[in-house]
Write a structure and sequence with these properties.
By secondary structure, the protein is of the alpha/beta class. The chain is built from 19 helices and 12 strands. The strands form 5 sheets. The protein has a 3-stranded parallel β-sheet, with helices on one face.
Length: 439
């Protein structure tokens, strides 16, 4: 089977680092094997799905540079699920169930009290035709479950290792709801079959779904894909990552000015023994990809690593490349002056405005700033001479000498050396700022 992987987000929110990691690993696997990477939008939950998030998913993946070979929407594949369901019905592998949610909860609690797994007991399989008719006469609309037949289901997970599940601990899963809609489990299994997915790489929270998907696939007489379940992600403090934190969304990172390649590098290395390095090109990640490099232990992700890598990567670029990323030309002198003091791409533009557009200066000591303006030389390259003259004239040194100058000239209390900023500010503008004028 030709290698084919998929990333299958639900459009119920913006992508966050947790599901972006799955996208990165699936994309790398497909590209490493010369196979196909499919983006599948799992939008069968009509109430929660939103076209805003569909567009957001596509934008975020494009921002990361993850291209896809096919785009599928589950909402457009309902006829495929209908056909698969009918096949299973004809083979006696699905059956109607008439229990209400309250009845199911009561049975669940009863099983727990008896020390049994809180799974469905298969009672509806034993209903006689007249009992089903009676339920329907009451107005009950059935949901449908898939009948598991094997005593146990085992598989070799390529990350989690060998896994064995006893069917009595699983219970027959619902595949179709009373409203006629299909469950995630069923739709996902049918999609993986029909889209030719060879390798299902997803989060470990789906591990318990895998034995059910395996038997569904076998019941439809199709080959079972290879499974690999990436372990849980923890934050820097060892706590479970929460996708509710806005700072973890790719959209917020785009707005923050994070370098997308830094995100790729950190997520690709997460859970392996290899550290992310700023200079690694995507082609090297693809060539060196090894699914076996991912461990089964929970991986810790420190968002600050992405920010630090962003800084390292930006500082390795030249002014031309920075200009391309910003969408306008960046003067080489400006880039040389500020490159060591940026934390995000937008900082370059912030410094350009600070140095070359009017600002409101901050005067810490008006008399001192006025004296600095009077002593400013014609040749701004003579910075050392200017500072020496100020020292002789005012007796100042250290912070008392430099801090008022920085506030007046840039409106900031930190940044690159004033010697490299002065020529960019220009003499006339510098004098006006030192005198407290907006310039």
């Amino acid at each position: 089977m030709t290698t084919a992987t998929r990333f299958a987000p639900s459009p119920t929110g913006f992508l966050h680092l947790g599901n972006a990691r799955q996208a990165v690993v699936n994309w790398l696997m497909a590209r490493h094997e010369g196979g196909r990477f499919i983006l599948r939008i799992d939008d069968t939950d009509r109430a929660r799905s939103d076209v805003l998030y569909v567009d957001g998913i596509r934008e975020d993946l494009a921002w990361l540079g993850l291209d896809w070979d096919a785009l599928e929407h589950q909402s457009a594949r309902i006829p495929h699920y209908e056909a698969a369901f009918e096949t299973l019905a004809a083979r006696g592998r699905v059956y109607p169930c008439y229990e209400t949610p309250e009845e199911l909860e009561a049975r669940r609690e009863a099983r727990l009290k008896r020390g049994l797994p809180p799974v469905y007991d298969g009672a509806a399989k034993k209903l006689r035709a007249e009992e089903r008719d009676a339920f329907e006469a009451e107005g009950r609309v059935p949901h449908w479950r898939f009948a598991l037949e094997a005593a146990e289901i085992s598989f070799d997970d390529k990350i989690a290792g060998p896994r064995r599940f006893l069917v009595r601990n699983l219970g027959d899963p619902v595949v179709r709801r009373a409203d006629g809609s299909f469950t995630y489990l069923f739709a996902s299994a049918v999609d993986d079959i029909e889209l030719g997915i060879s390798d299902v790489i997803r989060g470990q929270d789906h591990l318990s779904n895998t034995p059910l998907q395996i038997e569904l696939t076998q019941a439809l007489d199709r080959p079972v894909p290879v499974f690999a379940h990436l372990p849980l992600i923890l934050d820097a403090g060892g706590e479970k990552f929460s996708k509710r934190l806005g700072s973890l969304s790719l959209r917020s990172m785009r707005q923050e000015g994070i370098d997308p390649h830094a995100v790729i590098l950190v997520l690709a290395a997460l859970g392996t023994a290899t550290a992310a390095e700023a200079g690694t090109p995507v082609d090297d990640l693809v060539r060196g990809f090894d699914l076996g490099a991912y461990g089964n232990a929970a991986a810790r992700l420190d968002v600050q690593d992405i920010r630090r890598l962003t800084v390292q990567r930006l500082q390795q670029l030249d002014a031309e490349r920075i200009g391309m990323m910003l969408g306008h030309e960046v003067e080489p002198a400006l880039w040389r002056a500020v490159s060591a003091n940026i934390e995000r791409l937008e900082d370059v533009e912030d410094w350009r405005r600070t140095l070359m557009e009017p600002i409101d200066p901050m005067l810490e000591d008006g008399d001192y700033s006025e004296r600095a303006a009077a002593l400013l030389p014609e040749d701004l390259q003579d910075y050392d001479g200017w500072i020496a003259a100020l020292k002789r004239d005012t007796g100042r040194k250290g912070k008392a000498l430099f801090h008022p100058l920085r506030l007046a000239l840039t409106g900031r209390d930190h940044g690159p050396e004033l010697r490299v900023l002065l020529p960019l500010i220009g003499r006339d503008r510098a004098i006006r700022r030192l005198r407290g004028e907006r310039a």
